[in-house]
Specification:
mainly beta, 2 domains, Thiol Ester Dehydrase, Chain A, 13-stranded antiparallel sheet, Porin
Length: 275
């Protein structure tokens, strides 16, 4: 994993005044959209904190892994140090539920529920066609990267990960409008993806309402991500789409598949329309 991704997921124990485990984490400005921390990066940190805390609090419960995280975004944190408080709400033989609160300045910024379970093994018994079936495994020449203008002024991921957007799915960049759908590719810098990285990718796309001529910050209200399996080496492909925009809010779904075409993560978020 790249140094920046390793650093942002690093946890330091701190004294806690609640039942559970308390940590500090330091979020580099790389993981921001505009001035505020990216929502998918916060979920990635929360999933890692839940896994670490559960390992510490229930060391004999091997085999349970994060399979879902649901987050309510109460406020937008700034890059820098955040407080993390983790508590176990349920510890069963096959399912565990933990709460993870990320705070800053004495205020809870993101409140999440993380579900751990036995993920199972083998291949799916059913797989429906999806919008990424015909998308190349690796990005073609001419894709829009996070280091290209105008994205680099808003999306700061460049030093931590490679991300390429399909220009054909971004008519907004040509001054046109089109479908509320964006396709892209992502991978860590100099490393292979893991499941926690897939959590970040499940919120990696620019707001799809850009293609409808709606520009600006689209704050996430709620985001739920399902973790399906560890990704194979190589690029992750993602598709973001929306079926209803407005009034006031829109939903955005992400599908993330690995280099074999296997589904590794799925997400749905409710966000405010840009003003």
């Amino acid at each position: 994993m790249s140094e920046l991704l390793t650093a942002v997921r690093a946890l330091t124990r701190r004294p806690g005044d609640r039942v559970g485990v308390a940590y500090w984490a330091t979020i580099d400005p790389v993981f921001t959209i505009g001035p505020k921390v990216h929502g998918g990066s916060l979920q990635m940190i929360a999933v890692g904190a839940a896994r670490a805390a559960f390992t510490e609090l229930a060391p004999m419960a091997g085999g349970l892994v994060p399979v879902a995280i649901a987050s309510d975004y109460l406020a937008a944190p700034n890059p820098g140090v955040v407080d993390i408080d983790v508590a176990v709400r349920k510890h069963g033989r096959t399912v565990a539920v933990l709460t993870v609160d990320i705070g800053q300045g004495g205020r809870t910024m993101v409140s999440s529920t993380v579900t751990l379970a036995y993920a199972g093994e083998g291949e799916p018994s059913h797989r429906a066609p999806n919008g990424l079936d015909g998308v190349p495994v690796a990005p073609p020449v001419g894709g829009l990267t996070v280091d290209d203008a105008p994205m680099r002024d808003i999306v700061h991921f460049g030093p931590a990960l490679d991300m390429v957007l399909d220009p054909e799915s971004l008519p907004a960049m040509r001054g046109q409008t089109g479908a509320a759908r964006i396709v892209g590719w992502a991978r860590p810098k100099g490393a292979e993806p893991d499941l926690d990285f897939a959590v970040l990718v499940a919120d990696a796309s620019p707001p799809v309402v850009m293609n409808l001529g709606m520009f600006g910050w689209a704050p996430t209200v709620q985001l739920t991500t399902y973790l399906r399996r560890e990704p194979a080496p190589g690029w992750l492909r993602f598709e973001a789409s929306s079926v209803q925009v407005g009034p006031g809010m829109f939903e955005e779904d992400h599908l993330v598949v690995d280099s074999t075409g296997a589904v590794v993560a799925q997400s749905r978020q409710l966000a405010l329309l840009p003003k």
